[in-house]
Small ribosomal subunit protein uS15
Amino acid sequence: MALDSAKKQEIVTKYGRNESDTGSSEVQIALLTLRIAELTEHLKIFKKDHASRLGLLKLVGKRRRLMRYFKRVNKEAYLNLVESLQIRDNI
């Protein structure tokens, strides 16, 4: 279920402020979004995998808190990020 390093590096270069930026809110939200999408696809196949469902709910909560913080700090960049990741702005 973990992201491979090539995909992770691609996300970091796309959303990060520089090549080695892995801690900014944009990168963290993008990485969590990718993990959430992968887990969602997994749960469509394995409907009774409750452990993964719990992990998915934790990831969604973590992403939601990060998005709330990022919206408060930099609203314009937040709106650009939401648009590029194609996720809802329901915060």
Summary: The chain has a mean pLDDT of 93.
